[in-house]
Amino acid sequence: MSNRNKRIAPLLITIDGPAGAGKTTVSRTLATRLGFLYVDTGALYRAVAFEAVSRGVDTENDDELDRLASGLDLKFVHADEGGRLLSCGKDISDAIRTPRIAMLASAVSARPSVRRALLDVQKRMGAEKAAVFEGRDMGTVVFPDADVKFFLTAELAARARRRFDEYGDAKDQRFEDVLEDMRRRDENDSTRALAPLRAAPDAIIIDSTDMNPEAVVDAMAAHVYSKHG
After folding, report:
1. What pTM does this model have?
2. Whole-number pLDDT of residue 79
């Protein structure tokens, strides 16, 4: 029987890695193949960043961020295009996908008040398993006991090119700007004191530099089925 047709017990799967590694496409596709829920945890931090900008909240003030993050009603809802994120009932899925919000999300994700507020949200989402969680610290901090952990990475230039291409006609930056933004984001994410970006000791590391998304998903699915099928 092909792995694509096999049923599998509910598992909690985490996929961590740096920006531009292809986590979103791979995580969504793997979740669909397994029949699991897909959760983009990075979108939650982008939501806090977006709401902070929209409401004029000082992102350097932990008290203000705590009040903001704790008061947000964030929900993922199923849609034909793979799910949408609602903040207090408003669809912000597209609004959070900008270079400015991406950089600010990296900064606010290092604030203890924001991480505390969103940690409970993520744990509640993962309580029933049968889910693929995409993020930066899913396998190290949020779900250290996850059934399967992946760390997806790629060379910096390849990741920057992918992100640059994602902006399409809406992009207002040069490739060199995207490359530098990603380099700085990598440094911020990996050197922050709170929950730095790193692979869990028991994570399966996959370098996607020379792999297309389908090949990455095939490799991940093969590992899942070999261990839990």
Report:
1. 0.80
2. 66
